[in-house]
What does this fold into?
Amino acid sequence: GQNIDQPTEMTATEGAIVQINCTYQTSGFNGLFWYQQHAGEAPTFLSYNVLDGLEEKGRFSSFLSRSKGYSYLLLKELQMKDSASYLCAVRGFTGGGNKLTFGTGTQLKVEL
Amino acid sequence: DAGVIQSPRHEVTEMGQEVTLRCKPISGHNSLFWYRQTMMRGLELLIYFNNNVPIDDSGMPEDRFSAKMPNASFSTLKIQPSEPRDSAVYFCASSFGADEQFFGPGTRLTVL
It folds into this structure.
């Protein structure tokens, strides 16, 4: 099975940098995804890591360490519109190899 | 381009009634996923199809839930009979192979 842990809530200031951590335990690892979900809306894809290291995409970066079962999402130059829930999801090899298990999400609040 | 389409967007029904949720995946995508999201349990995978064939239905709560995908452009999730604890937001998502999943807007189901 898979177990995913991420903080429930975080608060940060507009213009600042915030790091959202995700730790996971899985019997087989085949990639980690980050999704953003605004209140009342669907999750939208942010990033994907399958190899160790940092993936950068504009203001958002995601890091993975497979040996530590650890990932983080880094948001730079925070904007008010970044207030949302951030979901970490792990893909294993069970269930046909395309099954995602989601964490419960980190609710980020960006303040002035 | 049209994204994943779900209908209805909102459904209010009484306990014991049959509920059918519908999904049209993105054209060209060959994997389709049904998720349920609640405050208590987060985002859970119910079932997913690959090339119209159910691959993993281990998340389907019980026999009251069933899903079909008669062709590449249509899927249904049926609950019969519905119960108040089925109240949740049901998302459909699609992907091309192991690429990122694109989520539909969701169906907010309330069972009275």
Summary: The mean pLDDT of chain B is 96. Chain B touches chain A at residues 31, 33, 42-45, 48, 50, 55-56, 58, 91, 95, 97-98, 100-106 (CB under 8 Å). The CA atoms of residues 3 and 26 of chain B lie 6 Å apart. The two ends of chain B are 36 Å apart (CA to CA).
